[in-house]
Amino acid sequence: MKDVHKFDQEPDGSLFDPRARAAMSEFVGGGDTAPFEAAAAVRTAYQAVERMRAHGSEGRGLSSGAMDVLLRLGAAGAGGGGISIGDLAQAAGVSSRNVTGLVDTLERDGLARRVQDSRDRRSVLAVITDEGRAWIEAFRTPSQLAMRAMFQGFSAADLTALRHLCLRLADNQQRLSAHLEGR
């Protein structure tokens, strides 16, 4: 894959994307570009991680979304239970319709199955199969190696700060969304 992003360095050594800066400067009319550049950097980082995840999961027959659902089912399966489609959708931050399609794919591939919820006969749960657990085991080591490579040079404190800042951003968005919706 050709180089998509070329970054420059500020005098303090921090990276920035000169093309994003130029576009954001034009957009804000010469005002403060920092929040816009940060948002662009989050998108760039997200896309980089997703490209890596897709590279690893698609080579094993699953989309990144299906892999996320399978990993959630694997975690729930460790506790002996399944997860409703609605709960999977909420946890993944996507629609129930989207998760239904992903569970359909996992079920077709023998990695998950649907079972009736013993607590509510009207409800169906998705559960991981033995084949699904085997898929996760086969994917574990390559994933660990890929994530180590992606985050090479990051200290434990860097990773904690990155996680914290991303989750703060998500929390701010949720609060803003609730405010705009009048909740």
In short:
With 183 residues, this protein is mainly α. The protein has helices spanning 18-28, 34-58, 64-78, 85-92, 96-108, 130-150, 156-180, and strands spanning 8-9, 15-16, 83-84, 112-117, 120-128.
User: Which class best fits the helix and strand makeup?
Assistant: mainly alpha
Could you tell me the strand content as a percent range?
5-15%
* Order of H and E elements: EEHHHEHHEEHH
Q: What sort of overall outline do the alpha carbons produce when their principal axes are compared?
A: globular
Strand order of the largest sheet: 3-5-4
Oligomeric state as shown = single chain
Fraction of helical residues: 55-70%
Q: What composes the largest sheet?
A: 3 strands, antiparallel
Individual helix count = 7
Please tell me the overall pLDDT: 87
Any idea what the radius of gyration is?
20 Å
Distance between the termini: 45 Å
In total, the number of strands is: 5
Relevant terms:
183 residues, mainly alpha, 3-stranded antiparallel beta sheet, two-stranded antiparallel ribbon, 11% strand
Question: How would you sum up this structure, described in words?
Answer:
The chain has 183 residues and is mainly alpha-helical. It is 64% helix and 11% strand. It is built from seven helices and five strands, in the order ββαααβααββαα. A three-stranded antiparallel β-sheet has the order 3-5-4. Strands 1-2 form a two-stranded antiparallel ribbon. α3 crosses α5 and α4 packs across α5. The chain starts with 7 loop residues before the first strand and ends with a helix. 14% of the residues are buried. The mean pLDDT is 87.
